[in-house]
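Can anyone check this?
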Amino acid sequence: MKKYLCGAWIGLVACMVILFSTVSCLAQDAARVTEETELKQACMAAAVTAIQTEISRHEKWLAFRNQQGDSQGVKELEDSLALLRADLEKYRHMDVAAYVLPEKVVTPAWVENLAAEDTLLHIDMMTKSGPFYHLAGVTGGDYTVLQVNTRYNMTFYRVYPRSYWNMNSDYIYVAAAEK
């Protein structure tokens, strides 16, 4: 009988260990899913900000082209604006689960001016031809965490391309900045 109770006790302990391990793994998976969902939401919000910034820039260019009487330039800008407005609606109504995170970039980076929306982020090996990265979002929404001329090991995501002639230029979401 004692042998039977000891075996049952060991079996019960083993089942409890397995149960707690499973619950722990499920909790870790849920936390990972929540983190990824939050990151996707932040990147989507940054993409909306980027598109709104692009729309504003294109509207200014359009007004200038209209002033100049440049009908070809006006047509091209109107077409670009239509695409931007369609993208804006797409991102505003997109389900988070459908959003695919862009490639994560980890690199030393800094800002040379007070950080704000559309501020240029500097990276090593940046030339006059780019790549150019413009802020469209930062973790916590507080751009002031990026101090002027302070190098960070930065993690960011390219959330939307920036129209800048034919040079490599993107709007980004900064997910982490460590000194």
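Reply from J.R.: I decoded it. Residues 131 and 143 are 21 Å apart (CA to CA).
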